[in-house]
């Protein structure tokens, strides 16, 4: 069945470090791919999305490219800030049905 | 932006009792609401989808008599865990969307931590 696998955390980085959170997926068709972020005490928020192969989603300095050949959607940011500390979820979707990864906790220290 | 609230944010109840969790869309009308469950270190699992004024659609393996979902208005959905047991302890998250927005635009609540003792 369809599923998403993302790297386990927690991840701890120093401010201005480079971030990569790996995400791979298994799907029978051509899903849309998403990254959601959950800040402490808040609901999940859509961070970025890509709806077809080779699309690059970007927002707030974060980027992810929909790679059909490697079934991946890795999240990257060139220089993280303390305010980026949160839990990040990779997800895929067909219509209303979402499949989420387990979430990766990121802590950025000054 | 669209805001979804949940109440309570955490609740402790005794085994055998029932507990109700509310999910509200504060500044938009939610034609569809979703209920998810998350176990520690696991992904969010969709439990059910509800449309305002109609019965909820439950995912396979979810007991509809145990997890009662009501979506009585365009701004409120409730999840009632009946005769709760310790294995029902989990993090419950709701989300909401409107028909006028893209299908992937679901707005999530902050979640409710349920502990059954």
Structural notes for this entry:
The complex is a heterodimer of chains A (110) and B (117). Chain A is mainly β. Chain A has no helices and twelve strands. Chain A has strands at 3-6, 11-14, 19-21, 23-26, 32-38, 45-50, 56-59, 62-65, 75-77, 86-94, 97-100, 104-109. In chain A, the strands form three sheets. In chain A, strands 2, 5, 6, 10, 11 and 12 form a six-stranded mixed β-sheet that branches. A four-stranded antiparallel β-sheet of chain A has the order 3-9-8-7, with no helix packed on it. Chain B is an all-beta fold. Chain B contains no helices and eleven strands. In chain B, strands 2, 4, 5, 6, 9, 10 and 11 form a seven-stranded mixed β-sheet that branches. A four-stranded antiparallel β-sheet of chain B has the order 1-3-8-7, with no helix packed on it. Chain A binds chain B through residues 4, 8, 32, 34, 36, 38, 41-46, 49, 89, 93, 95-103, and chain B through 4, 32, 34, 41-44, 46, 49, 93, 95, 103-111.
Supply the key terms:
heterodimer, A: mainly beta, six-stranded mixed β-sheet, four-stranded antiparallel β-sheet, B: 117 residues, mainly beta
Number of helices of chain A: 0
What summary fits the major beta sheet of chain B? 7 strands, mixed
Broad structural category of chain A: mainly beta
* Computed structural class of chain B: mainly beta
Low-confidence stretches of chain A: none
CA radius of gyration of chain A = 13 Å
Please report the total strand number of chain A as a whole number: 12
Separation of termini of chain A? 41 Å
Strand proportion of chain A: over 45%
Order of SSEs of chain A: EEEEEEEEEEEE
> Helical percent range of chain A?
under 10%
Beta-strand portion of chain B reads over 45%
Q: What's the helix count of chain B?
A: 0
Uncertain residue segments of chain B: none
Give the biggest beta sheet of chain A. 6 strands, mixed
Overall pLDDT of chain A, averaged?
92
């Amino acid at each position: 069945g369809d599923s998403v696998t993302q790297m386990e955390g927690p991840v701890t980085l120093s401010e201005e470090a480079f971030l990569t959170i790996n995400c791979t997926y298994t799907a029978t068709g051509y899903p849309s791919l998403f990254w959601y972020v959950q800040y402490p005490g808040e609901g999940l928020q859509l961070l970025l999305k890509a709806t077809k192969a080779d699309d690059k989603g970007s927002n707030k300095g974060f980027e992810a490219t929909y790679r059909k050949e490697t079934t991946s959607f890795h999240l990257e940011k060139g220089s993280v800030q303390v305010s980026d500390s949160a839990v990040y979820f990779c997800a895929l979707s067909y219509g209303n049905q979402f499949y989420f990864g387990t979430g990766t906790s990121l802590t950025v220290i000054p | 932006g669209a805001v979804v609230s949940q109440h309570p944010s955490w609740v402790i109840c005794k085994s055998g009792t029932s507990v109700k969790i509310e999910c509200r869309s504060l500044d938009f009308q939610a034609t569809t609401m979703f209920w998810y469950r998350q176990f520690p270190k696991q992904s969010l699992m969709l439990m059910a989808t509800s449309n305002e004024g109609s019965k909820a659609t439950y995912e396979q393996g979810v007991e509809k008599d145990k997890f009662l979902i009501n979506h009585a208005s365009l701004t409120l959905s409730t999840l009632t865990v009946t005769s709760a047991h310790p294995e029902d302890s989990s993090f419950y998250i709701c989300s909401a969307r409107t028909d006028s927005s893209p299908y992937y635009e679901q707005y999530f609540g902050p979640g409710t931590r349920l502990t059954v003792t």
